[in-house]
Structure formats: structure tokens, C-alpha cells
Amino acid sequence: MQHFKTLSSYLDYLGLPRPEHPMLSVFNSKGDGYLPCPRESSPPITNDCYSISFKKYVEGNLNYGRTNYDFTNGALIFISPRQVLQWDNSVVFEQKGFSINFHEDFLKGTELAHQIKKYGFFSYSVNEALHLSPKEEKQIESIVENIEIEYQNNQDAFSKEIIVSQLDTFLKYANRFYERQFLNRKEISNNLLEQFNQHLTEYFESGQLQEKGIPSIEQIAAKMSVSQRYLSDTLKKETGKTTTEHLHLHLIDEAKNILLQPNKSISEVAYELGFEYPPYFSRLFKKKEGMSPTEYREKYKLN
After folding, report:
1. Relative to the CA of 23, which of 7, 92, 148, 221 has its CA 20 to 30 Å away?
2. Pick from 153, 252, 162: which is nearest to 200 by CA?
3. How far is CA 124 from CA 109, 214, 219, 248, in A?
4. DSSP conformational letter for 40
5. Where do the HTH araC/xylS-type domain residues begin and end (predicted)?
């Protein structure tokens, strides 16, 4: 897989203009203009840059995931360093909006270098983009204009500090808008929870738990065609519980049924549930139920 270590080499590969700054590029369509179009297709590639793109699709229809969205309001997409990128030429769009690309070293020595890793939306898939309202769009565009002014100006001792400050403000607004999007998409959130539970039920009932062990959250997310981080954030917002906590609840519910079979030891129950170490199963069970597996069996075996 081809990897690009510098911003310039990455933009050269895309067929986009070289940046004004070795570690930062800003493209912004204004008036009747369009964003420069990158190459139409690419095999999997990676690079060392963050990318933030806001695109309005002027021509072409697009479904994000299994849901239709109104893209006249635009979609904000975040990509982190070393995220695998691949696209084809099945659909070509004329695009308005903006694109900001910066090398991860651009943030070195700043507080944002640490803070940016806490923004989960950089780990989301393209079908989990942020969809802005017209008001939100104006707020974001005003910040981008400030960044672009500094980007186009002659660089001085204050330029980087001002740009990083504006990027920090931009990401704080994006975080706020994602919170709004989670709240406004109850139906989609509920659907994800139902899919998650259904996948676990099918996994348990098919005997894969005994054959392959406890599934990872990454495996479950891949089956659902969503990113691990987005799945976790969505369920956390909807239920107050993480994906791992939901997985543990399924395991404990399954354990309760098996524990009432008196011919199986606690260790056998643990192995049947995919736990490599029975003591870990016992600790988890007690944490969730307030009693050990043995105590649970004694309490309910006669009921």
C-alpha cells in the first residue's frame, strides 16, 4: 500500500495544487467557483495528514450508508493520519465547499496536538459525516475564512499560532454539531442498537461464541458497516452504555441461563461463553450482578 509522508507528495498524487505552506493547504470554493477535482480513482493509500472537507454536491446523487441525505446543506468529513483511503470513478461530482489538509507535525508543540486525538469523529467512516444546517454552515465557513486569510498572507511569527487557534475553535464547533446530530437521529441510533443486539444474538445462537470466542467490537462494527468509534459514540449517546458494556450485558444474560444447568462447573460456563480465563468471567459477573456465579446459582436454582 502506498504511503505519503509529506503533504506535498500527497497533493501531487491527488493532482491538486501544491500548498502555500509545506504542512498546510486550504482550498475554498467561492462565488461560482468549484473545488479542484482530485484524481477520479485510487487503490488503498495512506498518509500522515489530517483532512477536513466540507462538500456540497452540485451534480450527482449519493447515499451515505443505508440512508439518503440532503446534501444541498453539505457534509463535513474528517480523516485522520494513516486512515486507509480508497475511491473509484463510479460517480463524479462537481463540488463546492472547502478542504483543509495539514500534516500531523504542523501541530507539534501545541495543546491541540493532544486534544485532536480526543475527537472521535476523525475515526468515523465517510457514511458517518456531519451534516450541517445553514446556520451551522455559516459559522464554520467564517472560521475557514479566517484560516484562509492567514494561509494566504506572508507567514510571520504569529501565523501558526493564529491558524492553530482557529482550527481548535473549528473542532470545538464540530464536536457541538455532532452532539446535535446524535440527538436528532434517534431513529438511526435506535436502528444501530437493534442491529448490534441482533448481531450478538445471531453470533451466540450460531455457536460461534464457543468456536471463535468473544467477538471484538471492531468485528461487530465491521459486520454492521460502521466504524467502531461511531458505533460506540452512538450507543453511548443513546443508552449511556458503551459497546463493551452492551456486549458484557449479553454475555451475562447468556451466563445466567447456563448457570442454572447444575451439571456444568463455573469454569465450563466461562469457557462456553468464550472466556479464556474463568476468574475474569467470575469477576465480570460479580461486577454486573453484585454476586458471584456460584452465589447466583445457589440463589436461583430452586426458583
Report:
1. 92
2. 252
3. 26, 24, 15, 24
4. S
5. 198-299
Residues 152 and 218 in one domain: no
Residue type present at position 21: H
- 20 and 85 fall within a common domain: yes
Contacts of 53 (CB under 8 A, 6+ apart): 76, 77, 79, 97, 98, 99, 100
Using CB atoms within 10 Å of the CB of residue 108, give its burial: 0 to 12 exposed, 13 to 18 middle, 19+ buried. exposed
pTM summary value: 0.64
Q: What is the tens place of the pLDDT at every residue in 212-231?
A: 888 888 888 888 888 888 88
- CATH number of the domain to which 241 belongs: 1.10.10.60
Number of domains in the chain: 2
Domain span holding position 230: 187-300
84: phi > 0 → left, psi -120 to 50 → alpha, else beta; which? beta
Reduce the DSSP state of residue 184 to 3 states and report it.
helix
Q: Which three cell numbers stand for residue 4?
A: 505519503
CA 153, 11, 126, 107 dihedral sign is negative
Q: CA nearest 125: which of 84, 166, 74?
A: 84
**Domain end marker among 184, 209, 241:** 184
Evaluate whether 142 touches 28 at the Cβ level (below 8 Å): no
Asked if residues 267 and 256 have their Cβ atoms less than 8 Å apart, the reply is: no
Q: 251-281, pLDDT tens digit by residue?
A: 888 888 888 777 888 988 888 888 888 899 9
Same domain, 105 and 234: no
